[in-house]
């Protein structure tokens, strides 16, 4: 009887130890699973943030590139208009020079005509 009781007690003790071991293992497993889940979530959040940042950076870059391009185009246009104006001024000067020369010649011719008329009149 005593032996049987001892055996029963021993068995109970072993069962208890086994159960506590099982609980401990389960607890450990749960902890690791939770840890894994947590790290995955955090990693996901980090990735999201990183992607968002890169998206923002790209957007900003595109915007700055657009403004730079606009500025460059405006500069080019201004340069072209400047050149055009210079060319127009040059052409205007040339034309004026030509007309001045023509007018001088015309005046000279007119003067010569007058002189000839005078001479003819004087001859008579």
Provide a descriptive summary of the structure in words.
With 124 residues, this protein is mainly alpha-helical. The chain has one domain. It has one helix and no strands. The model has no long low-confidence stretch (mean pLDDT 93). It is 98% helix and 0% strand. The chain has one helix at residues 2-123.
Structural class: mainly alpha
Number of H/I helices? 1
Number of domains: 1
The helicity comes to: over 70%
- Give the percentage of residues in beta strands: under 5%
- Outline the biggest β-sheet: none
| Gap between N and C termini | 182 Å
What are the secondary-structure elements, in order, as H or E? H
Rough shape?
rod-shaped
Oligomer: single chain
Parts with pLDDT < 50 across at least 5 consecutive residues: none
Radius of gyration: 53 Å
Quantity of strands, as a count: 0
Average pLDDT: 93
Helices, strands, pairings?
Layout (H helix, E strand, L loop, with lengths): L1 H122 L1
Sum this structure up briefly.
Residues 1-124 are annotated as: Disordered. The protein is mainly alpha-helical.
Structural key phrases:
124 residues; mainly alpha; rod-shaped
